[in-house]
Automatic annotation (TrEMBL):
Keyword set includes Ribonucleoprotein: no
Boundaries of every Lipid/polyisoprenoid-binding YceI-like domain copy: 22-182
Protein name, UniProt field: YceI family protein
Keywords: Signal
InterPro entries per record: Lipid/polyisoprenoid-bd_YceI, TTHA0802/YceI-like_sf
Signal peptide coordinates: 1-20
Length: 183
């Protein structure tokens, strides 16, 4: 191959890759929480450890991808005893299923600063197709992705045995997230 052709090919290849770039997550400005109702009282708890790999191109959102992994043992209810309880087999079974994950299958524009995201959510060995709206904006030169995904905990076998009773802990859970990421 002639040097000029090689340079041209390299330039075309670099241009194709430049549009979509994997963004680096800023953990200090990112969060994943779960909100549920226990005995009629709303409870919000935070996952302390998670990773988000986002390959986002604002000019071509349909070419974007997202992959999120959450360490379920990092679920923090604000009390060490409660945290130990939810890591047990009846709840997250963190010993056998240490991570929950979301992998996008489609990201579609839905208006200015809005996207519709669909993909597969896997928790405790069970997977389900999910879809949710997402907002995206720029703050301080970084992209901020925010959204909420309502799920039913029993669909993922979260709350076994006596904890299947939804009069104590409601079946509905909302996973809320804010991921700040940049290059």
């Amino acid at each position: 191959m002639k040097p000029i052709q090689g340079l041209l090919l390299a330039s075309v290849f670099a241009s194709a890759l430049a549009g979509a770039a994997v963004l680096k997550t800023d953990p200090a400005k990112s969060s994943v929480t779960a909100t549920f109702t226990q005995m009629g009282v709303p409870v919000e708890a935070k996952f302390r450890q998670f990773t988000a790999q986002i390959d986002y191109d604002a000019a071509k959102p349909a070419a974007s991808k997202a992959n999120v992994e959450i360490a379920v043992g990092s679920f923090d209810l604000g009390d060490a005893e409660y945290n130990k309880e939810v890591a047990k087999k009846e709840w997250f079974n963190a010993a056998q299923f240490p991570k929950a994950s979301f992998v996008s299958s489609a990201i579609a524009p839905a208006g200015a600063g809005k996207l519709n995201v669909s993909g597969t959510l896997s928790i405790k060995g069970r997977s389900a197709k999910v879809a949710f709206p997402l907002t995206v904006k720029t703050e301080g030169g970084k992209q901020v992705f925010e959204g909420a995904l309502p799920i039913r905990r029993l669909a993922f076998n979260i709350g076994e045995g006596e904890w299947k009773d939804t009069s104590m802990v409601a079946d509905e859970v909302v996973i809320k997230f804010r991921v700040t990421a940049g290059q």
